[in-house]
Amino acid sequence: MCDGCQDTGVVEQEAVCVQYAVNATINTKFIAVQSVERADAAGVQEAINKVMSSVTDGDWTNKLCGFGCDGAAVMLGKKNGVVAKFLERQPCLVGVHCFAHRLELSFKDALKQVKIFGEADRFLLNLYLFYHNSSLNRSMLKRSCQAYATPACVPTRVGGTRWLPHMKRALDNLWKLYPALVEHLQQLPHQKGASNDALGKSKNFLKNLTDPSMLYFLHFLTDVVSVLSVLSLGIQSNATTLGDMFQKIQNTVAALRKHTTR
Question: Is 25 left (phi over 0), alpha (psi -120 to 50) or beta?
Fold first, then answer.
């Protein structure tokens, strides 16, 4: 299994993990992170070869039966992808597009034509940045939390390495902070030192937080994302078998269908 990333120097890296079975027990181990000279199929394959050759004896591809990755053309391209190149050395290889990644893409595809989802996504991201980039805003929000006797926290980012669980956490925090957020944003125009930019953003945030259509959609999104997050985390568990995954998907579909009748 492998996935691409960039380090702080914006250098392309490939993280390599191995899943293997010993006495019917499945084990998963992180092997290494290897720099990639070229971010094409040949470069990624070379990086993986370097990592695996450093921890194995002989031709390690002889025991290769599966290859898990994201759905990028570099990885799963039928003619020149990394999986296609390894198939030349191991014809029995099965390429697997990460199920959790496919779930994320399906979620995005299902909502990309829904205008209000784009607005909600930008709202949550901008709200996070509003507090993340200002210690003063965080401090004043904390005071509002104390006034409402709510746990002190801040809006969190909607994106990340685990998109759906991160979005769920962002939505959960939004509802926990809702009265404190409204209080702080209403008081911000009276706050000394507030910039015109902060005043304009706070007005827009208040508009979203009090707009019935936006609130209805955010509640609906919370219901859907809560169900999908359980599936996403279940898929990512090392203990999940293929049979477990099939059952989890059936449970998810059943739960989502209930929302159509609410």
Answer: beta
pTM tops 0.85 = no
Pairing of strands 12-22, 2-6: antiparallel
CA angle 220, 123, 115 (to 5 degrees): 60
Higher local confidence (pLDDT), 25 or 85: 85
Closest CA to 136 of 65, 208, 184, 203: 184
The answer to whether 31 touches 13, Cβ cutoff 8 Å, is no
**Residue 34 in contact with residue 48, Cβ under 8 Å?**
yes
- Confirm if 134 and 150 have CB atoms less than 8 A apart: no
Instruction: List Cβ<8 Å contacts ≥24 apart for 136-145.
Output: 136/193, 137/184, 137/198, 140/184, 140/187, 140/188, 140/191, 141/177, 141/180, 141/181, 141/184, 143/184, 144/179, 144/180, 144/181, 144/183, 144/184, 144/187, 145/177, 145/180
Assigned token pair, 214: 């936006």
Give the pLDDT of residue 200: 92
On the question of pLDDT at 161 being above 70, the answer is no
Cα 202 to chain centroid distance, Å, stands at 27
Estimate the share of the chain in helix, then strand, then coil, as percent rounded to the nearest 5. Answer: 60, 15, 25
Strand partners of residue 19: 28
CA–CA distance, 77 with 82 (Å, rounded to integer): 7
